[in-house]
Amino acid sequence: MQNNNSELTQLLPGESLRIGVDLIADKKSGALIVIGSSAKLDKISSGGVELIDCEYSPEMLSELAKMDGAIIVDQFVTKILKANVHLNPSDTLSTTQTGTRHRTAERTAEETNLTVITVSEESSLVKVFTNSETTELEEPSVILGRVNESLQSVDRMRRRFDDAVAELGELEIENSLTNQQVLEIIQRGELLTRLAKQVRSEALRLGGEAGLVLIQIDSLESGVTNTLNLVLKDHLPAKKYRNIAKAIDEISRQSYEELNDIDYLGSVLGKLPLDDLSTPKGYRVLARLPNLPENLHDSIIQKFKTLPKLLSASPDKLYEIEGIGRGRAQQLRDYFDTLLKNIGFSYINGH
What we know:
Layout: H1 4-10, H2 16-26, E1 31-35, H3 39-43, E2 45-46, E3 49-50, H4 58-64, E4 70-73, E5 80-87, H5 100-112, E6 115-119, E7 126-129, E8 134-136, H6 140-174, H7 179-203, H8 211-221, H9 224-235, H10 244-252, H11 256-260, H12 262-269, H13 283-287, H14 295-304, H15 307-311, H16 315-319, H17 326-342
Parallel strand pairs: 1-4
Antiparallel strand pairs: 1-6, 2-5, 3-5, 4-5, 6-7, 7-8
């Protein structure tokens, strides 16, 4: 059995096989092309011209398509093996196609487990048949238009996510954040990640033309996963989620309907009632301080338990943590003072 994924990759825009198929479509020639060879294919084949050492090229494929029969190329599309071949697959095999060429292609693919490509003479429509499915190739401009539209949706969702995260920071320091607001962050981040994944998959169908789109997707996704992981570490109940990997897995398994139901998501993650306050542990605040080694985060959280207690810690209390010297303890205190000052709180005598 041939690797159908490989053949579909060879049909991406800019690939040599796709260029040849597009040449045929542009000339309104029509064609039936089989990728690979096998004993089963030989059994249902008759006639044709065997080509000796015929190197594949898009131009040669296009020229041979002027003949009536099928063209057979090798599995790796490096050689053209035969042209003008008559195919006679079993007519007992069911087909959903209309037109002799397309019915023959679908039945040949099913009987041989090879990939078969048809180009319609009238409409220039290109179809790819495998033993399990039929795919219609689209023009790159059509795919790009759809991808650009989806990118706008990702961009809007990213801005909504960023706005919610900015508000989250203030509410965490004020200790006025609710379970519902935490769940909305998780919800938006997961939806953003899923949509970006779908757009990335669609963009890959552009082949070599996908580069700029993929850069845009990378930019829109940047930092989202890390932010979500920190929010989960900060706000999920430790007794239920000692490791956030379990929570990440549970969130990923929710359907779109379940994910959009805040009450249901809250029940899954142990964040009910929705209007209860959700007190952070402080992981996200510590992650925003440059040059603080990550291995110290757990030690700091373990000592102070919650962000409000951490924000009121004196330099002496911070100094008690193994690995934190006097200088770093004061650096942390200064950092906390800045955070509190920015939202209108002041630190007086460690309270």
